[in-house]
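Final report, closing paragraph on structural work. Over the funding period we assembled a curated collection of sequence-structure pairs, and we close with a single example.
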Amino acid sequence: MTVLTCLDRWRADGTITERQYGDIREWTRTDRLSVFLELNALLYLGVLSCAAGIGWTVRVHFARLGDAFVLVPLTMILAACLGYCFSRASPYSRAAVPTPTFAFDYILYLGCLVFAVELGYVEFRFHLLRAHWDHYLLASAIVYFALAFRFDNRFVLSLALATLGSWFGVRVTREGLFVGDVRAWALAYGVIVALAGVGLNRVGVKKHFLETCFHVAANVLLLAMASGTVSGDPAVRSMWTIGLAVGAGVSISQGIRFRRFAFVVYGAIYGYAGLMIRASEFVDGAVAFLACLLVSSGAVIVALAAVARRFGRQ
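Its predicted structure, as stored:
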């Protein structure tokens, strides 16, 4: 007779209460504790730290080490990462592909970061493209997109989208298109990313990439609208404020509807920041504004906690 069997009988006989039954059952259970998220977080931080350390070493000691001593190890690390991934990856599929090993995604991500460091070093030392150095960003984005789709990696997809956004910003600046409204181009980029995700979802190619595209698009769009509340004449700021309120509301409502808490946080944080910036124009005195800030931020935190508890229960 097991301990759990005895507990069930004692509860049925009324020897122990329901609360005592639950407490003792928790003590006697031998279920394994999952540390999956913690291990993933440690691996991610480890990859970033490793890439940052490589970049710092190259930047500080390149003159003493020499070009060959920098480029050869970087190329070897890149080749090792790609060789590992190609040797263990499943065949390409339009659908989601299971990760072959626990560290697979992070090794690929490390290879991409090392590639960025090496490419930056090559341009810094040899100036191959000179004034057209922004083409490195476009080339990097293309490589990252290819690797993201080949290995079904959302880390690398996020890196590709960020790199493409950097190239987009640099390119329109070089063409003089930022003379007008910078935020308009940011909005255009965010819409393009969102539509690309929807398009991939419609044609059935890596449909699970849709959420990553929406994460990038939501941050870009909300940040662009929030920044619009701090510049321009009052009428323009009011228009950006209205747009931000609508965008934040959509992000929060759709995040709750589709059970994606991150989008609730995006809408709450960006919306709150923009609205408080505008509120500072109408509140007289630092003390009054500080009181308003404390009360409103407390309300936002309580609201987010309530929504988070609801997500957790469900």
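The mean pLDDT is 86. The two ends are 35 Å apart (CA to CA). We thank the funder for supporting this effort.
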